[in-house]
Amino acid sequence: MSVREDPQAQPVRPTAEDSVAAAASEVIGGPAGRRALLGTSWWTPVRIIALVAIGMFALGMVQKLPCYNGGWFFGATTQYTHACYSDIPHLYSGRGFADNLVPYFNHIPRKISGGMEYLEYPVLTGLFMEVASWLTPGHGTSQSAMQHREQIYWMVNAGMLMVCAAVMAVCVTRTHRRRPWDGLFVALAPAFALTATINWDLFAVALTAAAMLMWSRDRPLKAGILLGLATAAKFYPVLLLGPLFLLCLRAGRWRAFWSATGGAVGAWLVVNVPVMVSWQGGGPQLREGWTMFYTFSQERPVDFGSLWLIISQRSGSPMDDVNTYATALMVLACAGVAALALCAPRRPRLAQLAFLIVAAFVLTNKVYSPQYVLWLIPLAALARPRWRDFLVWQACEVMYFLGIWMYLAYTGSGDQHRGLPPEGYQLAIALHLLGTLYLCALVVRDALVPDRDPVRRDGSDDPSGGVLDRAPDVFVLGEARRTAQYEGAAMIKPGAGRD
Q1: Cα distance between residue 101 and residue 97, in whole Å
Q2: Does residue 17 belong to any structural domain of this protein?
Q3: Which of 185, 211, 337, 428 could form a disulfide with 381 if both were Cys (CB 3.0 to 4.6 A apart)?
Q4: Is 16 contained in some domain?
Q5: Higher pLDDT, residue 341 or 20
Q6: Would 495 be classed as within a structural domain?
Q7: What does DSSP assign to residue 171?
Q8: CA 113: distance to chain centroid?
Q9: Domain interval for residue 124
């Protein structure tokens, strides 16, 4: 006699609900059967996705090979025409690591830094860079010796960042218990492979993904600690406290929110206080090296990849008030996210609001470096796990990745102007902006029309929401107050609203 299996207890098969995944699976023999997901094989989703992520990371390293073999050192435009630029080898000598200078404590000579007096990165990223420099062997100050040391420094950092990539992929895979294969969105993202070793952003992204995993497992204090560490490595993770506040307000889960917030603040202070404070004149003062990241972010002009660069280039104005404009737009975006969180007919999922708030920061910021896409990839995988939409967005990001390097080749080739002119680069920026807005619009639609949400299609509520999952609402506004009963999360019929 057969026993009917509970669909809520079975992992979601992407090939059964996503036409793009089903079509792509034909390359490896077609959609997986039911028994392939029972977990009896060594090849579990976590292990498969971790290996795929490492493989894609390795392909990204191969893509940087023309620069590793000389493009970083010979000729100003080679690293742009081959689209293999990385900050890592340049900052090894340019921020004093090759000379054993200690970040935030030692002043960087102008002759090697190009005017940057101290390291302009948050403290935990600075520690990551410093540890990599300790692991970089080599001596000598000749040109060939220095180039070799910079190559090794990039390789050491790549090895450390590969670990971060695997952690990120595993955390995303385990966040939605019934949707482990959503981790493939992260592992197979083209922009992930292309941008992983441009800078050190993967470190903060991995910590943020781990924080999301801890929150999904009802461990708000650990989630907060990891979020605080992530904020000590990059600014953007602190934005996730906003969605947590709004959702905990709606659900009345204040204990979890304050536990996470306390852990985040505590972890950030533990990392930063030893570096930020110096004792001078008998009292504590902020260390100038520690403040460099914050003053640099505030004072930098309109830069690559931003909406403001298009406006500045088209109008011929330097936009001295860009901080005011960017802040005003970000405030409006935050107000929109807050309205969505409190007025949607059903409480939005944490991943949805997290993606929207970080995307708003990316869209309104006065600079968009190509590796910033790494901030959004894990959140997009959790917020909108649909291959068609994900790949449309990724195509836009890949076009931007190519566009910025071709533009820098154009501006760096003198009178020859080999590369992409400003008008072409503006189009690349517009593609990035429109692609991100497209994905944001779909996430907003899913929140407003929950039966269009692919995650909630099987009756789930908020698999990554931790204490928020299936929690009754206690505070709502607008249409939600008039149309819904808040005795618990509404159930959606499996298979409803397929797109």
Answers
A1: 6
A2: no
A3: 185
A4: no
A5: 341
A6: no
A7: H
A8: 28
A9: 43-483
